[in-house]
């Protein structure tokens, strides 16, 4: 069987595109029908049934095939002329095979800016269209929307070169491309195409596994698409948020630190009045009358273990170390955070540059999880104004350092050292990495993590309750059992430090609830789960601190009150935009693009950018809260400031 046809296409448009449709009822794979189309600048061929291979060598056969021929564009020196197309049909079958051949002209081959266009495609019937940059347009976003999540598709932007790669096995050979389910967006610049025009190619995959679908797919039908080209300005407005962190200070204010002699005068006096603590700022010292009622041991003035056993502690009891030594100790926090920031930022920058270079070289835009509907080119990098892969690690450290800063204001002598604090953060970040890898489906990880979480909460609670006097060693479990037996079983006595006990009970209930929730529901976003634990503990301790401050007859001045209200309002607004998920690296790139949204601020910034702006302002107000919360104690002696 051998037939040949000659078609003459008369020019009606500046660029003529011709589409060839063939159909054959034969399903005999041993004797396929071969179609060869010869043009002035190329040859295109395929067979019917058309065979696509999927995962595990699965095959998918299609009886209908439709291809767009590469258009011939007249040169500026010549006028449009007739196109001659030869179509040869052949088969080695020893019997007759029925087929259908249809050649049509595409009337809507050229796309227009800001004008939606609807079309259909299938694995054996790909589509591509032409776009020309208008004179006043330097950059456009190609926005493609599908009416169904599957089948999996690929959108490609290719230069005006024949042949056009419009099949599943070769669409990645040229240009840039994205996989998609329901939405895709590609930013294209005029400078990248010397001819100021390009092809937009649409290919349907025979299987959906590349987009996160089931394996294999039984969908062989056509897919309805809508493509829209949006004009995008080359530049926009920039906003720079400058973060300034709160320094960990060795004491509350300059005035209490300037009198080291004050701390040594309160060690034994305060033991004599356990029933009632005087309000902050009071000049009455009832212990003066009672000093003669008993003898004070010299060790009380010097032994920290004896001092910290008092029912009511004051700041002077926990600020007995030399001020210069404490100041140097807390400066280590600052220098370590600078070092960590540098070592953390450099690999991130290297990663962004490397992956963006790979994207530019290969054209594979599935490598990066951008919000492609609001991605603006900047030189060689199609990146956002804020572009690290993740910022949750620093958020862990910010929340943890805020808790340490709040604890340090009333416990300057027993606060954690910089080395132990940052080592703890390193352990948390390591657990977060393991959770990202194993936390999705592995039950054993959640069991181990929940046990670590509960035991760490108990150990930290013990250290806080006993003011650092509880030793963590082999015998700690035996001592804990003895304390529980004597205080809770043998005789149910009232806790010596009731306020601390209430805080720790509530804190442990919150952390145990997190552990149980993680064990039962196993949230997929493990990094945000860890961040939620840090934030809840920070808010809980801040609330406890403010309540105890008011209980101790201390005041909240107008400035810290304003900062607290501003912090709550700005954080609420920031978290609203934080939870507007614009991409998800836990899903396939195609599924992640379903969450992409257009810019919402100045035509340049998206929801995540707004989150960064608002969170920067919220952090500023949060640090102001930490720095001004105890401004009412600037003129109060340290032996009058209670510890809680």
From TrEMBL:
Region listing for Disordered, in residue ranges: 257-296
Gene Ontology MF: a single term: double-stranded RNA binding
Record's compositionally biased regions (Acidic residues): 286-296
InterPro entries the UniProt entry points to: SID1_TM_fam
Membrane topology note: Multi-pass membrane protein
Keyword check for Electron transport: no
Keyword RNA-binding: no
Residue intervals passing through the bilayer: 333-355, 392-407, 419-438, 444-468, 501-520, 526-547, 559-579, 610-629
Signal peptide: 1-17
Protein keywords: Glycoprotein, Membrane, Signal, Transmembrane, Transmembrane helix
Cellular component annotations (GO), alphabetically ordered: lysosome; plasma membrane
Pfam families from the UniProt entry: SID-1_RNA_chan
UniProt subcellular location: Membrane
Low complexity composition-biased segments: 257-273
Matches recorded under PANTHER family: SID1 TRANSMEMBRANE FAMILY MEMBER 1 (PTHR12185:SF15), SID1 TRANSMEMBRANE FAMILY MEMEBER (PTHR12185)
Family of the protein in this entry: Belongs to the SID1 family.
Name used for this protein in its record: SID1 transmembrane family member 1
Organism for this UniProt entry: Zosterops lateralis melanops
């Amino acid at each position: 069987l051998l037939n040949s046809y000659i078609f003459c296409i008369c020019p009606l448009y500046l660029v003529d595109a011709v589409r060839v449709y063939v159909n054959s009822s034969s399903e005999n794979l041993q004797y396929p029908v071969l179609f060869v189309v010869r043009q002035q600048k190329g040859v295109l061929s395929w067979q019917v049934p058309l065979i696509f291979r999927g995962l595990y060598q699965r095959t998918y056969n299609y009886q209908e095939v439709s291809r767009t021929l590469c258009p011939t564009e007249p040169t500026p020196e010549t006028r449009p002329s007739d196109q001659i197309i030869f179509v040869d049909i052949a088969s080695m079958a020893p019997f007759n095979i029925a087929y259908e051949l249809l050649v049509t002209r595409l009337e809507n081959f050229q796309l227009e800016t800001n004008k939606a266009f609807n079309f259909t495609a299938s694995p054996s019937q790909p589509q591509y269209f032409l776009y020309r940059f208008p004179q006043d347009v330097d950059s456009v976003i190609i926005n493609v929307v599908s009416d169904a999540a599957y089948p999996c598709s690929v959108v490609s932007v290719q230069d005006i070169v024949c042949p056009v790669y419009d099949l599943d096995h070769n669409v990645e050979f040229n240009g840039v491309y994205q996989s998609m389910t329901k939405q895709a967006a590609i930013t294209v610049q005029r400078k990248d195409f010397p001819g100021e025009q390009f092809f937009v190619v649409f290919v349907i995959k025979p299987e959906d596994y590349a987009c996160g679908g089931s394996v294999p797919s039984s969908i062989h039908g056509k897919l309805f698409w809508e493509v829209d080209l949006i004009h995008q300005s080359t530049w926009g407005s920039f906003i720079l948020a400058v973060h300034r962190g709160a320094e960990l200070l060795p004491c509350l204010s300059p005035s209490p630190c300037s009198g080291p002699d004050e701390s040594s005068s309160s060690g034994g006096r305060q033991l004599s009045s356990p029933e009632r603590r005087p309000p902050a700022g009071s000049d009455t010292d009832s212990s003066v009358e009672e000093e003669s009622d008993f003898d004070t041991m010299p060790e009380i003035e010097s032994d920290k273990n004896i001092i910290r056993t008092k029912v009511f502690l004051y700041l002077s009891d926990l600020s007995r170390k030399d001020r210069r030594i404490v100041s140097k100790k807390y400066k280590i926090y600052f220098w370590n955070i600078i070092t960590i920031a540098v070592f953390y930022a450099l690999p991130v920058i290297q990663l962004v540059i490397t992956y963006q270079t790979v994207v530019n070289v290969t054209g594979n835009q599935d490598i990066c999880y951008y919000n492609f509907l609001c991605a603006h080119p900047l030189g060689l990098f199609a990146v956002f104004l804020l572009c690290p892969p993740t910022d949750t690690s620093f958020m862990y450290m910010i929340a943890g350092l805020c808790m340490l800063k709040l604890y340090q204001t009333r416990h300057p002598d027993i606060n954690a050292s910089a080395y132990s604090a940052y080592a703890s953060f390193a352990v948390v970040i390591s657990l977060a990495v393991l959770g990202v890898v194993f936390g999705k489906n592995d039950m054993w990880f959640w069991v181990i993590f929940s046990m670590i979480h509960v035991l760490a909460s108990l150990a930290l609670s013990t250290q806080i309750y006993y003011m650092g006097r509880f030793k963590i060693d082999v015998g700690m479990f035996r001592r804990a059992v003895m304390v529980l037996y004597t205080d809770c079983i043998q005789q149910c006595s009232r806790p010596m430090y009731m306020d601390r006990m209430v805080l720790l009970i509530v804190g442990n209930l919150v952390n145990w609830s997190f552990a149980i929730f993680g064990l039962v529901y196993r949230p997929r976003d493990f990094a945000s789960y860890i961040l939620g634990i840090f934030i809840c503990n920070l808010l809980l301790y801040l609330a406890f601190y403010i309540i105890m401050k008011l209980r101790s007859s201390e005041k909240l001045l107008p400035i810290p009150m304003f900062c607290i209200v501003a912090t709550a309002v700005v954080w609420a607004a920031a978290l609203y935009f934080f939870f507007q998920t614009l991409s998800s690296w836990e899903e396939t790139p195609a599924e992640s693009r379903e969450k992409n949204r257009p810019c919402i601020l100045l035509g340049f910034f998206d929801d995540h950018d707004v989150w960064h702006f608002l969170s920067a302002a919220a952090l500023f107000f949060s640090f102001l809260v930490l720095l001004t919360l105890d401004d009412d104690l600037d003129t109060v002696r340290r032996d009058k400031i209670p510890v809680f």
